[in-house]
């Protein structure tokens, strides 16, 4: 690794650490005004952002970037407006810093509570998605944390354009300069240095494909929260309205297939499998845009009379995050079988479609994933949809945070003990 790259990282992390100690005590009004200024600048600078993104997108096409990553990379006016709206949502949320909770008075007379405090310096390594630059910056500011961002080479022009407007908002605010900064070097070796920056980085969050998540999990010596990669399942129970069920299946798979909360595997109870598969074939077979990988029983129930592309499922299809208009279908004979399949292959978002309240409650209790639904699309696993304003990641960890990570997930707490000249006997 070159000295120049190391110098950029060390300097920006040190500035972020110095800024974090000031930002931790900034008022809610100061933080909100800065976030609202970022939202306004996103709209004002829309054409500059789109021009930078156009360069990235063109380069991505030439380099053979996958369809899923191209979709995540691409910005348009609607997406920029959505980024600005998410920023405004963050500004409107309650400030978690300084909140006291779990208060109690002990028999010894001590009054004990917990108080939320920022984590310090949050670092993020992410691929393709320039909206992450805004999401993490605004959530970090509101939760009193500094953030050092390292986006992928494929989005460098977009990220620099967005980071520059965030710097403009900070310079015009009362918050410390450098509390948000972007590593502009695209040398991949810098990722390894970030993973080892103990004493500088308090929490590292990777957002990207399975390869990146695996690399971070295996090589980090700083605390990390991993997630955003996972297989989403929907189990169609024996008692269900066919039309409503297919509507949810269609939304979960087709509405935006390149994101982590899109449907990957459908598990159908054998009792109503013929009716469900017939409705699916009718729905998706009109245009033939969805490719179905069906197990032996499901394959035999599909007629092949439509444009639906159907292939025999293989063992590799179970546990596969497709990030495309591809879905695996398996017929099961019981909810026990469905839950066992999910336990083996899932941990992100799972749903049951049913009219049976007991089955719904059992599914909620027994499926151990980050988000578990009854009669709703998995596409709702999202910080904005959960009322968090935005998210820094969707964690599939079980420690510290799980599911969409918003403001509270970017804080820790300290114990507050109020005494009246107490001594321990």
Account of the 3D structure:
This protein is of the alpha/beta class. The chain has two domains: 3-229 and 386-418, Aldehyde Dehydrogenase, Chain A, domain 1, CATH 3.40.605; 233-380, 3-Layer(aba) Sandwich (Aldehyde Dehydrogenase, Chain A, domain 2), CATH 3.40.309.10. Helix content is 41%, strand content 18%. The chain has 14 helices and 16 strands. The chain has helices spanning 3-23, 28-44, 46-63, 67-73, 77-92, 131-142, 156-171, 189-195, 210-219, 242-254, 273-284, 296-301, 335-345, 357-366; strands spanning 100-105, 111-118, 121-126, 146-150, 180-182, 203-207, 233-236, 265-269, 291-294, 309-312, 326-332, 349-353, 371-374, 394-395, 403-404, 411-418. The strands form four sheets. It has a seven-stranded parallel sheet with strand order 10-9-11-8-7-12-13, with helices on both faces. The longest helix is centred in the first third of the chain and has 21 residues, at 3-23. The chain is globular. The protein starts with a helix and ends in a 7-residue tail after the last strand. The mean pLDDT is 94.
């Amino acid at each position: 690794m070159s000295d120049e790259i190391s110098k950029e990282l060390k300097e920006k992390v040190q500035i972020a650490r110095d800024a974090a100690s000031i930002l931790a005590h900034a008022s809610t009004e100061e933080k909100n005004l800065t976030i609202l200024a970022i939202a306004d600048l996103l709209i004002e600078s829309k054409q500059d952002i789109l021009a930078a993104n156009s360069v990235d997108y063109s380069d991505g096409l030439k380099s053979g970037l996958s369809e899923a990553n191209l979709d995540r990379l691409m910005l348009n006016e609607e997406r920029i407006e959505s980024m600005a709206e998410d920023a405004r949502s963050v500004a409107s949320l309650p400030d978690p810093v300084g909140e006291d909770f779990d208060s109690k008075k002990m028999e010894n007379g001590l009054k004990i509570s917990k108080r939320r405090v920022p984590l310090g310096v949050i670092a993020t390594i992410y691929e393709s998605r320039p909206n992450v630059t805004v999401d993490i910056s605004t959530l970090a500011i509101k939760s009193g944390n500094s953030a050092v961002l390292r986006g992928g080479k494929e989005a460098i022009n977009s990220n620099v354009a967005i980071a520059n407007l965030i710097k403009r908002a900070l310079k015009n605010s009362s918050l410390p300069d450098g509390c948000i900064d972007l590593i502009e070097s695209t040398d991949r070796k810098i990722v390894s240095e970030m993973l080892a920056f103990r004493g500088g980085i308090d929490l590292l969050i990777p957002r990207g494909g399975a390869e990146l998540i695996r690399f971070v999990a295996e090589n980090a010596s700083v605390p990390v929260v991993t997630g955003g990669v996972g297989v989403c399942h929907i189990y169609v129970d024996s008692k269900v309205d066919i039309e409503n069920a297919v509507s949810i299946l269609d939304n979960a798979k087709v509405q935006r297939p390149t994101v982590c909360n899109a449907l990957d595997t459908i598990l159908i109870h054998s009792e109503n499998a013929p009716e469900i598969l017939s409705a699916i074939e009718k729905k998706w077979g009109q245009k033939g845009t969805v490719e179905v990988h069906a197990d032996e029983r499901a394959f035999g129930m599909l007629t092949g009379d439509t444009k639906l592309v159907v292939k025999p499922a293989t063992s590799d299809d179970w546990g596969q995050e497709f990030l495309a208009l591809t879905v695996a279908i398996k017929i099961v004979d019981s909810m026990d079988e469905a839950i066992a399949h999910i336990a083996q292959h899932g941990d992100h978002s799972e749903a049951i479609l049913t009219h049976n309240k007991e089955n719904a409650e059992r599914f909620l209790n027994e499926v151990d994933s980050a988000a578990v639904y009854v009669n709703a699309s998995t596409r709702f696993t999202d910080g904005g949809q959960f009322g968090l304003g935005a998210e820094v990641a969707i964690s599939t960890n079980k420690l510290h945070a799980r599911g969409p990570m918003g403001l509270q997930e970017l804080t820790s707490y300290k114990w507050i003990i109020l005494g009246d000249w107490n001594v321990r006997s």
